[in-house]
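To whoever picks this up:

The parser on our side crashed when reading a file containing two proteins. I've narrowed it down to the boundary between the first structure block and the second sequence. Both blocks are reproduced below exactly, byte for byte. First block:
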Amino acid sequence: MAQMAKDFYHNEKVKVLPLAQKPATQKPISLRAQNISAGYGETPILKHIDLDVPEGEITILVGPNGCGKSTLLKTMARILTPSEGSVSLNGQNVHQLPTRQVAQQMALLAQGPIAPEGLKVRELVAQGRFPHQTLLKQWTKDDSVAVDWAMEVTNISQFAERPIDALSGGQRQRCWIAMALAQETDLVLLDEPTTFLDLKVQVDVMNLLTKTAKEAGKTMVIVLHELNIAAAYADNLVMMRSGEIIAQGDVNDIFTRENLRAVFGLDARVIFDAEAGRPVCMPNLNG
């Protein structure tokens, strides 16, 4: 199987949209990765990545397991330092900025977060306010307003005094999203926020993120596994394989049969849903 996949990826008939051909965005760029390479210890993962995150849009990263999606997110969020290249946040090198300054501009929700046993919902959401506090400036009315707003938009206000571990998976995920929103940043990065959730709950979470992004003017970068969910919600779609970006741009330009075959080794038809205005992939059952 591995050899078949290797042969498939090197099939000359597979044509992928070159990065140079992607349409130039007309929106300001809030987060930019330029020629970054990164990894863990001596193990390289990312290879000379260039990525622009358009302001006010939802950028979704997709690709096979181990392709570097989470590594890219962590590098852009300043958790990992690139061995080459740079990441700029609003025009400044993110790895040269103070931690608090970065946290006041960019929130990160990591994959599979775990809350301490017995921690209540309001206490968790309140942790999103830490970047705004100092020794001289403790909890203020602004902090309370931000926490109340975050719980309201994520529809968890009724759980405020309940322990996190007493909630369902979907409810817990909304609590973590509320914590990220309480941070009050224009840019929010989320690593697989729908993993292990039922399809209906995945849709609920993505509807919540999309609605919040549009109404509150947030820029979001999201790592997802479900291809049709990604196609349904992405403004800007990024396809990765083996530590490289294979294609990026408008979802209707990028979500193609050729790119799905090149990136995932997936033989599927891509049809256009006229009602949704989005592409959908249908796997070839005879493949």
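<<boundary where parser fails>>
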Amino acid sequence: MQVGRDEAFRDIYREHYNAVLRYAWRRVGPDAAHDVAAEVFLIAWRRWETVPRLDPLPWLYGVGRGVVQNHHRTENRGQMLEARLMVEPDPPTRDLADRTAERNSVVSAWQSLGETDREVLALVGWEGLDVPTAAMVMQCSVPAFTARLYRAKRRLRTALDRQDKAAEDAPEPPGAPARVGLEERCV
């Protein structure tokens, strides 16, 4: 019976390791992603009797969520997210100051959300999970997840709007050149 278990585990590992690794990579970064993925499959091996054979990926994501949460207890999540966002390249056509301001605005809005809101948005937006699968990962009903997703999107939009409003209302820094219209510059 052990041989059958070994082969079944290998099949699940081969089929889903990359998805679990990507899940971990987006949450803990490249330095810890392989460790998180390894921990997920170690837990799967230890709890083999509870692993669903037909569709194990949502179960693996659920375990991954717990492993990631344990990882974040020892790391500052906000600093990690900001560091990953700062590495992401932008199209070269945009002004560096505008890109930096926009990135800072998004980071600030994201960090203002609660952990559950961030996880709900990440499961759907980054992982590409459908609502029923994401609900399984979050261990809640589909209607409850749908409500969480709606509220998380609304809170993110509100936070981004607040960031935009704050940027518009910010005074010019001391010594900055006055904004002059084209007609006044040409005179």
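After patching the parser it read the second block fine. The domain at 1-76 is CATH 1.10.1740 (Rna Polymerase Sigma Factor; Chain: A). The two ends are 89 Å apart (CA to CA).
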